[in-house]
Amino acid sequence: MKKLWMSTLLLSLAIGLAACSNAEKNSMPAGHNMDNMNQNTSNQPVSQKESSGSIETLTGTEFTLTAKEATLQINEQTTLPVWTFNGSVPGPQLQVKQGDTVKIHLKNELPDPVTIHWHGVPVPNNMDGIPGVTQNAVQPGETFTYEFKADDPGTYWYHSHQDGVNQLDKGLYGTFVVEGKEQKPDRDYTLVLDEWMSQPAGEQKDNSSMEGMDHSQMGHGSNTDQQKPEQDHDMSMMYDLYTLNGKSGSLVEPLKVKVGERVRIRLVNAGFMKQQIHLQGHDFAIVSTDGQPINNPPQIKDQLVSIAPGERYDLEFTASNPGQWHIDSHGDSKEVKGLKAMIQYEGSSQNTTGSDQANESIQLPVVDISNYGKAVESKYTLDQKYNLEYTMNLGTESTDKGTIYTINDKTFPNTEPLKVKKGDLVKVRLVNKSEKDEHPMHLHGHFFQVLSKNGKPVQGSPIIKDTLNLKPGEEYVVAFEADNEGNWMFHCHDLHHASAGMVTEVMYTDYKSDFVPDPSAGNKPE
Ligand code: C2O
Ligand code: CU
Phi then psi for 188, rounded to 5 degrees? Predict the structure, then answer.
C-alpha cells in the first residue's frame, strides 16, 4: 500500500524519538550556511528537529544508509508511518566532491527487500540498484555496499528501485549532490517535492475522491485489484498533501536569506506529480537541469518552472528585494497550497508591501527550457549520423484488467529493448500518444541531449538531461552515446505508469553481466 495509512494523530513519542535519534556525527542541515554550522543538530530538542523542514546533510566519501520505519509529521494534523533512509523523509543529503570515489552501505531494517538507485548518476551497471537486473534486492537484515566515482557535478537523488511505486510513495528517497569546483553560493537549499495521502483510500471523506475511488475499485470489474498502481487518475486525486522536504503548509521551513546573498535552490521532484514552481519577488536564473549546467542562463521573473517526476532544476538568485516572498507551486487544486516555503530576510524588518498574496491567482507563463539560455556548439546535432535510430510511442490503453501504459503498444517485460554496442551514437524519437497522461521518461546510466521539441530544434542552451517530460501530443528527439556498458532501464518516472508497463531497456549486446538473479529474492524492478 502506498501512503494509504491511518492518519496517526497520537503516535507514541517513543517511535518519534527513535526515528530521529540517529543524527550522524558530521551532519548539518541542508540549506544552512557556515554561520549556522555551530548549531549542532544533535543538541537541539528532538521535537524541534521533528518539525523542522530542513534536510540533514552528510559529507565525506563513505556513508551508511539504513532503511527503516519511522513516522513523519507532515502538517499540524497529520503524522504518517513512513519508510525512510536513516529515519527521515527525505533521507539525508549525501554531499560529495567531484572526482570522489564514494561508498554507501545500505542496511535494510525494513520488513521488505529494498535497493538504492542513484538517479541521474552514471554509475557502473552493477551499482545501479535494479533488482533482478543488476543485483538481487537487499533482504531484511542484510546489507549491500554501493561504490562508484562521482565524476559529474550536479543535483541528483537516490531512491529504492524495488517495488518503486510503493516504496517511493512510502518515503524511501533522498538527495545526492556532487559539488564541482565552481564557487559556492552563500546559501544552498535543497527542496524535495512530493505528495501524500492523509488517509487510506477507503476512508476518504471528500466526495470527489470517493467518486474516483469507486471508479478505481469497481470500474474494472474486480475489487481484488483495488488501489493497484495503474489507477493513475484516481490515485492522483487521493494525494491530498503536497510537501516540501516532507512538510506541508506552516511546517515547511522558511528559506533564510540576507540582503546581498547569492542563493541556490535545488528543486528535486521525488513525487509522481508535476509541479509548477514560482519563485516570487526576485529575478532568478535556471542554472542547471538534471544537474547539467545551462549555458548562459538569462535572468527571468514571474515565470513558472515546470518540474516533472524525477527531474531536477537548480535556481539561483540574489537576495536583493527584502519583503515577504515565497516559493510555491501553482495549480488549480487546493492541495497545491501546502507546497510553499517562505523566503525570510534575516536582519531586515519585514516589509509586507511585497504582499505574500501577490499574483497568486495570476496566470504566469511557464519557462520553455528548449528555448532558454544561449546556443553553443554541442556534442550532437539532428542530422549527424547515428548507429541506431529508435522511435518510442508512449501510450495509454484501457484493458479489462485496468489501464496499461505502453511503449510501442507493448508493456514491460515484453517491450522491445534498444540494442546497442559500446560507442554507438543513438537517436531516440519519443512521442506521447496518450490523451491525458504526461510521461516523464528517465534513462539510467547515461545523459541524453535534447535536440528538438515538436519538430523544432532546441533554440537556446544545449539541454542535457536524464529525465524528460512529454505532455500529451508532444514529440522530442534526444541523442546519447552508448558509453556505459550494461543493461539500463528507460522508463516513465510516474511509477504508476512504469509499474503498469511503461518500461524498456537499453541493452549492450556485447555486455556480459556476472549477476545471477535469485528467484527467491522477490525482485521487483518496478
Ligand atoms: Cu529514479 Cu528507474 O528511476
Ligand atoms: Cu508515464
Answer: -135, 100
DSSP H or E stretch at residue 496: helix 495-499
**DSSP characters over 147-182:** EEE--S-EEEEEE--SSHHHHHHTT-EEEEEEE-SS
Of the candidates 331, 226, 341, the one whose C-alpha atom is nearest the C-alpha of residue 273 is 331
Spell 22-59 as b/e; 16+ CB within 10 A means b: bbeeebbbbbbbeeeeeeebeeeeeeebbebbbbbbbe
Distance 473 CA to ligand 2 centre (A): 13
Which residues make Cβ contacts (< 8 Å) with residue 183, sequence separation at least 6? none
Ligand nearest, relative to CA of residue 492:
2
Evaluate whether 167 touches 160 at the Cβ level (below 8 Å). yes
Peptide bond into 462 cis (omega under 30): no
The per-residue pLDDT for 361 is 61
The closest residue, in CA terms, to atom 3 on ligand 1 is 119
CA distance 189 to 11: 30
List pLDDT tens digits, range 79-91: 999 999 999 999 9
The three-class DSSP label of residue 443 is strand
Q: Supply the DSSP string of 81-96, one letter for each residue.
A: EEEEETTBSS-PEEEE
Kindly give, in sequence order, each residue whose CB lies less than 8 Å from that of residue 483, ignoring residues fewer than 6 positions away: 422, 423, 446
* pLDDT 10s digits, 311-350: 999 999 999 999 999 999 998 888 888 999 999 999 876 5
Whole-angstrom distance, CA of residue 396 vs CA of residue 233? 12
| Cα angle 108, 109, 115; round to 5 | 25
- Summary mean pLDDT of the chain: 85
Q: Ligand 1 centre from 124 Cα, in Å?
A: 15
Q: Is the CB of 117 under 6 A from ligand 1?
A: yes
- 56, 29 Cβ separation under 8 angstroms: yes
Q: Quick one: which H or E segment has residue 1?
A: none
> What's the rounded Cα separation, in Å, for the pair 111 and 328?
36
